[in-house]
Write a structure and sequence with these properties.
By secondary structure, this protein is of the alpha/beta class. The protein has two domains: 11-308, no CATH class; 329-407, no CATH class. 24% of the residues lie in helices and 18% in strands. It has helices at residues 81-95, 167-175, 220-231, 238-241, 252-257, 299-308, 329-337, 356-364, 385-407; strands at 11-13, 18-21, 35-38, 54-55, 65-69, 113-119, 126-130, 138-146, 152-158, 160-164, 193-199, 206-207, 218-219, 244-245, 248-249, 263-264, 277-278, 281-282. β17 (277-278) and β18 form a beta hairpin. α1 (81-95) packs across α3 (220-231) and α8 (356-364) packs across α9 (385-407). It is globular and about 65 Å long. The model is unreliable at 1-36, 42-61 and 371-383 (pLDDT under 50).
Length: 408
Amino acid sequence: MHRLVSRESKSSFGRSAIVDLLGPLLLSRAASTHFLRVERLKFARATLAACLFVAIGAARTSAITITFDYSFDANNFFDTQIKKDLLNAAANTIASHLSDSLTAITPNAPSNTWTASFFNPATGSIQTLSNLSIPADTVVVYAGGRNLGTSTLGSGGHGGFGASGSQEFVDTVTSRGQGVTQGAAANDFGPWGGAVTFTNNAAVPWSFANTQPPGGQFDFFSVALHELTHLFGFGTTDSWDNLVSGSVFVGFNAVAANGGLNVPLSADHGHWVNGTTSDGRETAMDPSLSSGARKGLTTLDLAGLDDLGWTLVPTGTPGNVNHDGRVDISDIQTVAANWLTPGPGGDANGNSFVDISDIQVIAAHWLEAGGAGGGAVLAVPEPSTLLLAAVAGFILAAIGVRARRNAA
């Protein structure tokens, strides 16, 4: 069992200089246990005309583009396209559930200026960049790797910033057009970006496969999904902290997803307690990952993101993977196009892998139609063996056609 224990490093900032930076908080290591950590920047407020530092994070929605920047990957962790593809797949999995819009950050020196701050993926030290221009609905994530030892698989967290200028500009950098994102009244989250780092220690047996990893190897996709969810604010924002009471999380949506009960948290208050389940499987955001396992976001994980301020895309009819309001042959085509990948396209059951189990979901809801929260049933046949066979035949044919085209 490898634990995905993740919690932030904390730092205090003055008007323009770093005053203190504490090392990352890691839980005590047990035998055969790996850790992940979340790095969270804590900033002190300053006057509007000075550098105003705050803690923020990063996200992507169906309308938002996450841009991964590898310019600080000095140790060349992302040396293959498959690693980048898996990181993108993890981000897209989260993004497919979110529908917020983020205001562009457009500096205009000398009137409106800002500085982005984040942990350098290659060194772990604070990195600053001045006056980044970030388009609307775009988030920048700096990705890389370094030797985190054999007890830490990765780390990730939201960035910080310093901003000066007009009230409108500072507000934009602070919240990207979202609601209250700072302090005791925070109930939302508006990010510019952040950073994620993965260990390059040779003793850590990574799996960079699209499929579920073999025993003894640790699924990079699952680790990336976990750390990016922290970067999106899970366990790391004021709006999250404001919903922590003692050792439980009391957010409305999470409580509802947990059968009306407050959700127990791990000791760091940044995860569900170890072993928490939802939808009949272990959550992505509890602090553990077994070798040979792959995790996807569960209803409870998504409810936590909802509570900290993200607006979720309506669930709609199960099996309607192309979101056109009806479960039909076009959904089969979506599954075929994403066959044996992490999705999110075609992932009807939310387990972050597109395979026959997604076909079973589609078959069970064949020809159902409806909007958010469920469908008006037009026809409710049982998922017969004949239908499953027909669907499987269609997928195999589609995959064969695609393979021939790629080979041509």
